[in-house]
Specification:
Layout (H helix, E strand, L loop, with lengths): L15 E3 L13 E3 L14 E3 L13 E3 L13 E3 L14 E3 L14 E3 L13 E3 L3
Parallel strand pairs: 1-2, 2-3, 3-4, 4-5, 5-6, 6-7, 7-8
Length: 136
């Protein structure tokens, strides 16, 4: 539902797209996108969920979940979860990361298993494995 939502998907099943250009390039199944440009550039990755304006708007692999605005501007890998504005914004090689809070883990550009919770938690961080919770 929405202009060009699931526009290229002619064979895959079990996908839902609601919003202008939501999943417009996707040919994979089992993906959900709700919002303008949600999942707009996803092509073959399955099991992704993008809810909000411009979420997962560039190519990713699979099983990523994003809720908010402007996530996934750069290529992601598998099993990323983020909630709030620009969490994991520049993540290009991460795997199994969780970011909850505005600007959380925005500079992360490394491999696996980071957890950050709170406004700007680990915003400029790009180092070794760590879990951080910053109370507000």
């Amino acid at each position: 539902m929405g202009y060009s939502a699931l526009g290229l998907n002619t064979t895959a099943s079990q996908s839902v797209a609601v919003g202008y250009l939501a999943l417009a390039r996707s040919t994979a199944g089992q993906t959900t996108a709700v919002g303008t440009l949600a999942g707009a550039a996803l092509t073959t990755g399955t099991g992704n969920t993008a809810i909000g304006f411009n979420t997962l708007s560039t190519e990713t692999e699979e099983t990523n979940t994003v809720l908010g605005i402007s996530f996934g501007q750069i290529q992601w890998r598998n099993c990323q979860q983020c909630v709030c504005y620009e969490a994991l914004f520049n993540c290009t090689t991460g795997l199994n990361n969780t970011a909850l809070g505005d600007f959380t883990l925005t500079a992360l550009n490394r491999e696996p298993e980071y957890v950050a919770v709170g406004h700007a938690a680990l915003m400029d961080f790009n180092s070794t494995l760590i879990t951080v919770i910053i109370p507000q």
